[in-house]
Amino acid sequence: MITVEHVTKTYGKKKNSFLALDDITFSIPEGASVAILGKSGSGKSTLMHAMSGLDRPEVGSVHINGHDILKLKQKEVDAFRSHTMSFIFQSFFVQANESCYNNVSLPLEIAGVPLRERRKKIEAALEAVELLDKKKNRARDLSGGQKQRLAIARAIANDPKILFADEPTGNLDSVTGKVVEDLLFNYNKKKGATLIIVTHDDDLASRCDVQILIKDGKIQDIKRKGKK
Amino acid sequence: MRMRDIVVRAGRSLRQAKARTLLTSLAISVGAFTVTVALAAGAGSQSYTNNFIKSNGDQSALTVIPQDRLTQDNSQKPMKYGEESESTNGQGAFTKKDVSRIEKIDNVAAVIPEYGIHAEYVARGDKKFYADATIKADRTEVALAAGSLKNGDVKSGTVLLPESYIDSLGFKNAQQAIGKNVTLRFVGAVTSPYQLPEKLDKTLKIAAVSKKSTTMVQPQATLQLSVADGKEINQFQTKGTSREGIFSMLTVRLKNEDKLAETQTEIESKGYSVLSLKDVQEALFQFIDIVTYGAALFGFLAILASVFGVINTQYISVLERTQQIGLMKALGARRRDIGRLFRYEAAWVGFLGGAIGTLLAVSLKWVNPWINSQLGLESGTELLKFEPMTSLILVASLVIVAVVAGYFPARKAARLDPIEALRTE
Question: What integer is the mean pLDDT of B114-128?
Fold first, then answer.
């Protein structure tokens, strides 16, 4: 269960201040797939950053499984993130010079997973995205779709409870985009993990259980499946 | 993150920027090379000097020499003609009285007068050769071709034979001469014009054969006898002459060699002139140290210059990997982890630079034989003497220096805002 209450975020100072998030309040049940929908500059990415504790809005609270992550100390937020969340980005952010294996290994190293367990988890994650045969290849040799699949493997390696995806198909053609989407929803269904997708793609958003429409930092509408 | 993982990741990202890593560490290695060679040359010179001194004298003993007759007591002014010095201590020569005076000093174990002896010839069977004989009063190390001397002393009844006599006396080699006897002929003093001087034949066993060494200043072609034998021969040769009981020099052996300087002052305070090889050694060592540290200073300057290289490279590395830093932070990496990642990278660069420089320097070891042949030194001499401990300490310090240099770039990396970092494309 994720509860966002009165989250407000301003950029800049006084005269030039700009309200990125304006009193956002909503809640998401555990295991749901959620789309945060909006045009660029609407504040949807800022909302994702706030929900993951990367950004710390001055007003409001974000409760994840009972913890207010905006009240936690930096160290605790970091630990929380490394154990419960993961990210997928529009431009993949895979480490081009590293092998696929070492790319996936990174979050496990950060979470301090012992060496023995790591190998199993990495191979399972690569298997899930069908890249196990490429584990020794360098990430730069992969195609765009493969890179995003690698990013998914990296994201799911440590079994996160919450998966954030920021425009995951934005840089992909529709066919490879579909594969990536399927992988994400698959993980969401199979593991019961909460999937939060930031997107401006209506088709992608329509596959989600919950759609949160953002405009100019405000929630315009929340659509829940089956409750039209 | 675990230390091991960070070290491995740091190593890997350096490997991915091979040229940059190598160039940065080469800058450090120039300094490391210079420092290593300077210290090696210093250590080599010291040990060479030490050998040089050891083979030319005994630094654990003091040599008491007669005071200059011309100077008055301890002042440096010449004495007026016709005046007598207040003390007559060892003016020109020593007597038994001087010996017993010095023997009374606390730390003195023995006072050995320089017994002057003059050999007529050395013989083995019917072969006779001119010979120069002296006594071995000090424990100066002698390079030996064969045999051995216990504590550097020649035992009574034995002789230390120069290598040059081996062939002439009919030995095949030095080893064969050991334990064999030679006879030395000594002629007594002429005390009466009507009487031929007495003769003394001394048969001595060859205890060891001395080798000509390049570190020796004097050509050591003398046969060296024990103090006891020397005393007997000296008494025989000076009996009834004005030279009886007069010695030109005294060798003082000490009970405790650490108190050499104190004992030296004490003997001097009794009005004697004392020579100590330790003084010479210390002065030479000090000179070598100054030259060594002077040269090493250039190395340290090179290292200092390379520090800026490390800082620069690390800043570039942080800029280049902004995205990676952002990703790691998003995945929950702590500031400390990121900081350590970059510091360990700097440490690797320092280690690499130190290792390259040191290895290059140590490989100069193979130049030693060439230096020796160019300078005409004994083979086996190491003018460049590398000590593993020095190299280890140097490499370790370079690692620390690099980490310190990497501090600011690492801090910049640690403080990056993940959102900003991830926005960078």
Answer: 88
Contact A93 B328 (CB under 8 A): no
CA distance B385 to B47: 8
DSSP string, A49-82: HHHHTSS--SEEEEEETTEETTTS-HHHHHHHHH
A118 occurs within a structural domain = no
* Listed residue (B311, B176, A52, B79) closest to A44, CA to CA: A52
Among chain A residues, the shortest Cα distance to B419 is held by A54
Q: Are residues B412 and B328 in the same domain?
A: yes
* CB-nearest partner of B331 from A75, A98, A107: A107
Interface confidence (ipTM) of the complex: 0.92
What contacts A142, CB < 8 A, 6 or more positions away? A94, A100, A131, A134, A150
Residues of A in contact with B345 (CB under 8 A): none
Q: Closest residue of B to A108, CA-based?
A: B1
Q: Give residue B69's pLDDT band: very low, low, confident or very high (50, 70, 90).
A: low
Range of the domain at A215: 2-97+164-224
| One domain for residues B236 and B318 | no
Distance in Å, alpha carbon of B49 to nearest chain A alpha carbon? 55
Question: Residue-wise pLDDT tens for chain A (228 aa)?
Answer: 899 999 999 888 878 888 889 999 999 999 999 999 998 888 888 999 999 989 888 899 999 988 899 898 989 999 999 999 999 999 899 998 899 999 999 999 999 999 999 999 999 999 999 999 998 999 999 998 999 999 999 999 999 999 999 999 988 999 999 999 999 999 999 999 999 999 989 999 999 999 999 999 999 999 998 654
Radius of gyration of chain A (CA): 18
Q: Residue written as tokens 């019917």?
A: B126
How would residue B214 be classed by pLDDT, with cut points 50, 70 and 90? low
- Measured between CB atoms, which of A74, A98, A112 is closest to B1? A112
| B163 and B252 Cβ atoms separated by less than 8 Å | no
| Tens of pLDDT, residues B157-184 | 999 988 888 888 888 888 888 999 999 9
- List CB contacts (< 8 A) between B9 and chain A: 109
Nearest to A97 among B16, B333, B418 (CB): B16
- B157 and B256 co-located in one domain: yes
Q: Does A139 reside within a domain?
A: no
Is A89 part of the contact surface with chain B (CB cutoff 8 Å)?
Answer: yes
Contacts of A85 in chain B (CB under 8 A): 332
Distance from CA of B41 to the nearest CA of A (A): 44
Which pTM value belongs to this model? 0.73
- B334 chain-A contacts, CB cut-off 8 A: 75, 78-79
Alpha-carbon torsion, ordered A212, A213, A214, A215, to 10 deg: -170
Number of domains making up chain A: 1
Cα dihedral B330, A93, A168, A19 in deg (nearest 10): 50
Q: Which tokens belong to B403?
A: 């980490």
Residues of chain B neighbouring A97 (CB-CB closer than 8 A): 13, 16
Buried b (16+ CB within 10 A) or exposed e, A74-96: eeebbbbbbbbbbbbbbbbbbbe
Nearest residue to B326 via CA among A32, A23, A81: A81
Of B229, B260, B275, which residue sits at a domain end?
B275
